[in-house]
Design brief:
By secondary structure, the protein is mainly α. Helix content is 69%, strand content 1%. The chain contains 13 helices and 2 strands. It has a two-stranded antiparallel sheet. Helix 1 packs across helix 11. The longest helix has 27 residues.
Length: 337
C-alpha cells in the first residue's frame, strides 16, 4: 500500500491524496458532532462538507467494478452492514438503543439504521454502478449528468421544497441525496480524468496554478461557512438556501484539485510516522462515524471542562473505532459473500 501512487492492491490504483481526503472527511464529520464539547458550538461545524468529501471518495474508489451487480452489490452491503450490525447490537445490549418491536428492529439493523450515511449510500450504490457500467464518463457526458441532476433538484426545490426556514443541509431529508450523488459522480469523473491522464502529473505540479487553486479554495470555503451562518440568522434569505449547496459543490471541486496537487508530496510523506495516523483515520472512517454519536452524548453529560472533555472523547472514539474494526473485519472474513 505504500509503494507508488499507482501501486496495486486488489488490482486497484492507490492514490495518496484520496487516503488524506478520507481521513480529513472523518475529522470534519466528527468535529461537526462535537456540540457541547467546545467552548462555542460554532467550532463544531462542517458536517455536510465532510459528508460530501466521503461520498466523492466513494465514487472515486468505485470507478471500475469488475463484478456483475448481483455479486458486487451484496459485497458492498456486507462491508458496511457488518460494521453497523456489530455496533448496533453492542449499543442495544448496553441499553443505549431500544428495540421494542419488529419494525424497530428493521429500522435499526436494515434501513435506514441509526446512521444516515448507511441509508444514503446503500441506495446510491445502485445508480452509481449503472453509470460506471453503461456510460462512458467523458467530460461531455459528465456535464450532462451533473446538469440534469441539478435541474431535477432545482425543480423540486422551486415547486415542492419548504423554503420558509434553512434546512437544505439536513442529512435525513430526501433532498440531500442530490448533493450526495453529485459528489459520488464527481469522484467517479475525477478518477477517470486522473487515470486517463487528462489531468497529467506535469499539469498537477504547476506552482502558480496550484497557488491560485488554494487561494480560491480558501475564499470559497469562507463563503460557504459565511452563507450557512447568514441563512440561519436571516430567515428572510432562506428562499435562496440552495445557493449554499452550489457553493459547497464548487468547494468540493477545488478541494479535489488542491489535494491532487499534493500527491507527490504525500508520496514522500508516506514514509514518515505521521502518515500512519492518516492511514489509521482513513481505514477507520466508517467505524469512527458509527461509534461517535453515543460516545459524544455520554461525555457531554459527564460535565468535564474543555479541553479535558475533548481529549477524553477523542481517545474513546479512537479506541472504540479500532475495537469495532477488529471485530467487524473478522466477521467479514468469516462470512464471505
Amino acid at each position: 500500500m505504500m509503494a507508488s501512487n499507482l501501486a496495486s492492491t486488489d488490482g486497484k490504483a492507490y492514490f495518496y491524496f484520496i487516503t488524506l481526503m478520507r481521513a480529513l472527511a472523518a475529522i470534519v464529520i466528527t468535529n461537526a458532532h462535537y456540540t457541547g464539547i467546545y467552548p462555542s458550538d460554532y467550532i463544531a461545524n462542517g458536517g455536510l462538507l465532510g459528508d460530501v468529501m466521503f461520498f466523492s471518495v466513494s465514487g472515486f474508489c468505485l470507478a471500475n467494478p469488475k463484478l456483475s451487480f448481483v455479486k458486487w452489490y451484496p459485497k458492498r452491503l456486507w462491508r458496511i452492514y457488518a460494521v453497523v450490525w456489530v455496533i448496533t447490537l453492542v449499543f442495544v445490549l448496553l441499553g443505549v438503543y431500544h428495540i421494542g418491536s419488529f419494525k424497530d428492529g428493521v429500522i435499526a439493523f436494515l434501513h435506514p439504521t441509526y446512521y444516515h450515511f448507511v441509508a444514503s449510500i446503500t441506495l446510491l450504490y445502485i445508480p452509481l454502478y449503472i453509470i460506471t457500467k453503461h456510460i462512458e464518463l467523458t467530460r461531455r457526458n459528465y456535464a450532462l449528468l451533473a446538469i440534469g441532476l441539478f435541474v431535477a433538484q432545482l425543480l423540486l426545490y422551486v415547486f415542492l421544497y419548504d423554503k420558509s426556514y434553512y434546512h437544505i443541509d439536513t442529512v435525513r431529508e430526501p433532498m440531500i441525496e442530490f448533493i450526495f450523488f453529485q459528489s459520488m459522480l464527481l469522484g467517479l469523473f475525477f478518477r477517470r480524468e486522473f487515470v486517463t491522464n487528462s489531468l497529467s502529473e506535469k499539469n498537477s505540479h504547476r506552482r502558480g496554478q496550484n497557488i491560485v487553486l488554494w487561494i480560491a479554495l480558501v475564499v470559497v470555503m469562507g463563503v460557504y461557512f459565511a452563507s450557512k451562518l447568514l441563512f440561519v440568522k436571516r430567515v428572510s434569505l432562506s428562499e435562496f438556501q440552495i445557493a449554499n449547496q452550489v457553493v459547497l459543490f464548487i468547494a468540493l471541486i477545488l478541494l479535489f484539485c488542491c489535494l491532487r496537487s499534493l500527491e507527490e508530496r504525500l508520496k514522500r510523506l508516506s514514509v514518515k510516522k505521521i502518515w500512519k495516523v492518516v492511514v489509521f483515520l482513513s481505514d477507520h472512517t466508517l467505524e469512527i462515524y458509527c461509534v461517535q454519536y453515543v460516545l459524544i452524548e455520554a461525555v457531554r453529560n459527564w460535565g468535564l471542562p474543555f479541553p479535558i472533555n475533548w481529549i477524553v472523547l477523542t481517545s474513546l472514539i479512537i479506541v472504540s473505532a479500532a475495537a469495532l474494526r477488529w471485530v467487524s473485519q473478522r466477521l467479514i472474513s468469516l462470512v464471505k459473500i
